[in-house]
Amino acid sequence: MRKQILLSLTVLLVGILPSLAQDKEAAVVSCTPEENAVLNETLPLLFTAYQEIAKGMDANDPMPTVIALDSLATNYWNTIYPALPNCLEAGALGYNFGIVLDESLINTGLAQLSQYEAQYGDATLAQSLSDLVITRTDWYKIILANTFGQITKDGKLPDSMFSYELEACTAEDGESEAVTAYTDSVTAYNELAQSVGEATDENATAVLFGFAELGTNYWIKIYPELPACAEISQDGYNIGLLYNERVIVMMLSRLAAYEVQYGTTESAQTLTDGAAARSELAKSFIEAAFPNPTAEATPEAK
């Protein structure tokens, strides 16, 4: 079952650069007072739920927090975010909050996996996972400071929380060093994706670490250097989110496997169900983000 979940998310990105002809979306306008009222009723409750989960985390046993964050994040993307008003501020706050949930889930889950590897697996890999969590956490603290940390007392949002229409990419943009690094990253992702089906319990964490390290390096070193033009910026951001989705699904599945051996059957089943639900969510994202032939899904394992 775990391999079927993982393979169903395998995406081979056969196109390196985004297509230069894409449909323009209709402009999104600022929220009305009525829409702001809906937003102000919804998000504070979610922030409170998130804070309660974070406060209750036990560094020596992160698993309950992993399960709670997974449930909150998946439910948020499936039911709450789609119901938010279709206006500028709601879109910015809502989307960024969802990313906060995902990042918290990734870092907490990798921390739990590091503990499992230290106890039952590869101590060197456990340290690498721990170091990666620190690196990724430090990076995301900066992102939070530049977004939610800049919201004023009267609720004004910083420019960094909005997506603005950019100029079309030029041939020169496509030949930049950052785009070359982006291309190399996609190639590395494809190579890792092709190895998932052959992963064993002994090397499954190492394969997951490869995806997590790739994604962390992408967000910190490559994505910020991409040309600020429409197609590359859009596809560049979506590639980073694809890396995140891959890590989340594999991480939940790997933690489930460890719970089967050393934890509880209840936690193992919850994590397995979480991985399946997140895989479906990820496939929906992939279909929306890459609707053209530059991304194609491989068949599910039988």
Q: What do these coordinates show?
A:
There is one protein chain. This protein is mainly α and 302 residues long. Helices cover 68% and strands 1% of the residues. The protein has 10 helices and 2 strands. The chain has helices at 2-8, 33-55, 63-80, 88-120, 123-146, 171-174, 177-195, 204-222, 230-262, 265-289, and strands spanning 11-12, 296-297. The longest helix has 33 residues, at 88-120. The model is unreliable at 1-24 and 293-302 (pLDDT under 50).
Integer tally of domains: 2
Helix tally equals 10
The largest sheet is: 2 strands, antiparallel
Strand content: under 5%
Q: Give the strand line-up of the largest sheet.
A: 1-2
Apparent shape:
globular
Main structural class: mainly alpha
Percent in helix: 55-70%
Spatial extent as radius of gyration? 19 Å
What's the N-to-C terminus distance?
10 Å
Properties at a glance:
302 residues, globular, 2 domains, disordered N terminus, mainly alpha, 1% strand, 2 strands
Task: Provide a concise account of the structure shown.
With 302 residues, this protein is an all-alpha fold.
List the SSEs and their pairings.
Elements lengths: L1 H7 L2 E2 L20 H23 L7 H18 L7 H33 L2 H24 L24 H4 L2 H19 L8 H19 L7 H33 L2 H25 L6 E2 L5
Antiparallel strand pairs: 1-2
Helix pairs in contact: 1-10, 2-3, 2-4, 3-4, 3-10, 4-5, 4-9, 5-8, 7-8, 7-9, 8-9, 9-10
